[in-house]
Amino acid sequence: MEKEVDCTKECCCCEKKKERSSKEIKDMVHRLNRIEGQVRGVKAMVEDNRYCVDILTQVSAIQSALNSFSKCLLSEHIKSCVVENIKAGNEEVVDELCSTIQKLMK
């Protein structure tokens, strides 16, 4: 399966854009929808005055799901955007990657 890779300028936050395959978008949105559902569940638990430890357990599960999502996204970023930029002679992308990893590890 061939993936479309295009890290061209066009985004408000970083002035870059990443073209993703429809399967990749579908998978990412599915994961995010599940996380969103977990957050809504925690909100309901708070509104129902559920036991703190039960809520904290669910919050931990949400954090784990977000970390997993970030790892997958970072991996795909390295395999596509970073590689393509290095091949094109843009080695500044390595500094950007290091900065991004530092932010994720906070």
Question: How does this structure look, described?
Answer:
The chain is mostly helical and 106 residues long. A two-stranded antiparallel sheet has the order 1-2. A hairpin with an 8-residue loop joins β1 and β2. It is elongated.
Determine the number of helices (DSSP H or I, runs of at least 4 residues): 3
The N- and C-terminal alpha carbons lie at a distance of 35 Å
- N to C succession of SSEs: EEHHH
Uncertain spans: 1-12
Strand coverage percent? under 5%
- Write down the overall mean pLDDT: 88
Based on the model shown, name its key terms.
disordered N terminus, two-stranded antiparallel sheet, 106 residues, mainly alpha, 3 helices
How is the secondary structure organized here?
Blueprint: E1 7-8, E2 17-18, H1 22-47, H2 52-87, H3 92-104
Antiparallel strand pairs: 1-2
Helix pairs in contact: 1-2, 2-3
Summarize the structure.
With 106 residues, the chain is mainly α. The chain has helices spanning 22-47, 52-87, 92-104, and strands spanning 7-8, 17-18. Helices cover 71% and strands 4% of the residues.
